[in-house]
Specification:
Layout: H1 2-7, H2 14-29, H3 32-42, H4 48-96, H5 102-116, H6 119-130, H7 136-165, H8 168-188, H9 198-206, H10 212-215, H11 217-248, H12 252-280, H13 284-304, H14 309-336, H15 342-371, H16 373-414
Length: 418
């Protein structure tokens, strides 16, 4: 069993391993984000509504960063884009610690996420450049494992540092790890030119298909489902840490350990789950439905159960929900992309999670301020149920599409020449 697990990690070039290590350092160092809402509530005394608005700017910055990444890559390539993103993020983390007012923090968070979120699209493109096509799904899962491992250490270490030195030290640690990541990247990975110019490749093919994505109704439906699943999961980083403190009086260290549980479960189970589903050729939408059901269960547990143990059980359900949803949502989106429009499809798909950031925090904070935590958990579970029903509808639509496509193939084979 252990050998089977290890075999999932074999066959990758050095560059992929360096990217994996870099991703781990970057994610482990990003300690501010899980505690950002608590920092604004405890240290800056912001209201729930103000926290919600700042997280809206967090999401808007994510959208800008995703869009900006494509623009910058078309001029300087993915290599320099990643360096710019990491270095500028490090500088902005140092600056952000000095900002204490609501208005300036909105601007600071917007700038930070605009720069930081340039990294992910560039990193995904670098995976395509450094791996063979048949290894790309596993390479992505390997990098996600590094994210999960980083998320295991980051929140726990962040909670410990808060207890010992306060919130301000997290900004300096985050900035320093960004700089360390830049150093490792430059020293161990050499720039590799793509065999085509990114902007020319997209523009040349997409001229006559400007609205191809909007005409792809199943893809648009998938975007809505993905956005809702993001709203469900991102509550873990916005409203849930506050709930730990206000409902159960948990110190930051224990709150960090609970968030770290998310990382350790993903580390050990995500890649084997992806490998199993891919090897058995199980329909990805069925797996996504199971993931959504797990997320709904997590929030219903918070609604009905009021003992400490529910925080652990809920985290297990939400984590398995994420593992069964996000990798396969990404894969389904990629499978819908028209030839030559892959970058455009994936960019729009990534933006669905950026919109989820916006709606998740603002909606959650407003509901909590007006109606309390229980109504928020019930609202989130209801939203998840809607996503589950939409996903079942999408499954039926794609099933019919496949039947129609097979009929067309058969007709073209047997009746074309008659």
């Amino acid at each position: 069993m252990f050998k089977n697990y290890i075999s999932n990690f074999k066959g990758f070039p050095r560059e992929i391993w360096v990217l994996t290590i870099l991703t781990f350092i970057n994610r482990a160092g990003t300690m501010v984000i899980p505690f950002l809402s608590k920092y604004m509530k405890d240290d800056l005394n912001f209201t729930y509504s103000q926290i919600g608005w700042i997280m809206v700017f967090f999401g808007i910055g994510s959208i800008i960063g995703t869009w900006l990444s494509g623009k910058v890559m078309s001029y300087v390539g993915f290599y320099k884009t990643m360096i710019i993103s990491l270095f500028a993020s490090g500088i902005l983390f140092f600056v952000l610690e000095q900002i204490k007012t609501f208005e300036m923090l909105c601007i600071g968070i917007l700038l930070l996420t605009s720069v930081a979120d340039m990294f992910r699209p560039a990193m995904l493109l670098s995976l395509n450049s450094f791996t063979r096509k048949e290894n790309r799904t596993r390479a992505l899962s390997l990098v996600r494992s590094a994210v999960n491992l980083g998320f295991l250490f980051g929140p726990a270490l962040g909670g410990f540092l808060i207890m010992k030195m306060g919130y301000k030290c997290l900004f300096y640690v985050d900035g320093a790890t960004c700089m360390l990541a830049v150093l490792i990247f430059v020293l161990y990975i050499r720039e590799k030119k793509l065999p085509f110019k990114l902007n020319e490749n997209i523009v040349a093919v997409s001229g006559g298909n400007k609205f191809a994505i909007l005409r792809d109704k199943p893809f648009v439906l998938h975007l809505i489902i993905s956005m809702i699943s993001g709203i469900l999961f991102f509550q873990v980083f916005t409203t849930l840490p506050l709930y730990h403190k206000e409902q159960f009086h948990l110190p930051e260290f224990y709150s960090g350990l609970l968030l770290g549980l998310n990382g350790i479960i993903m580390l050990f189970f995500e890649l084997p789950i992806v490998t199993f589903v891919e090897s058995r050729n199980i329909n990805k939408l069925r797996i996504i439905s199971l993931g959504l059901f797990c997320m709904i269960t997590a929030y219903m547990l918070l609604f009905f159960v009021k003992i400490d143990l529910v925080l652990v059980i809920m985290m297990v359900f939400i984590t398995f929900g994420a593992m069964l949803t996000f990798p396969f949502a990404n894969s389904f989106a990629s499978s819908r992309a028209h030839i030559g429009l892959e970058a455009k499809y994936m960019s729009v798909f990534t933006m669905s999670y950026s919109f989820a950031h916006i709606f998740s925090a603002k909606m959650g904070m407003e509901i909590i301020q007006k109606f309390g935590y229980d109504i928020n958990w019930l609202s989130i579970a209801t939203l998840g149920t809607i996503a589950l029903l939409l996903n079942l509808l999408l499954y039926n639509i794609t099933k019919k599409e496949k039947v129609i496509a097979n009929d067309k193939i058969m007709n073209s084979l047997f009746f074309e020449n008659k």
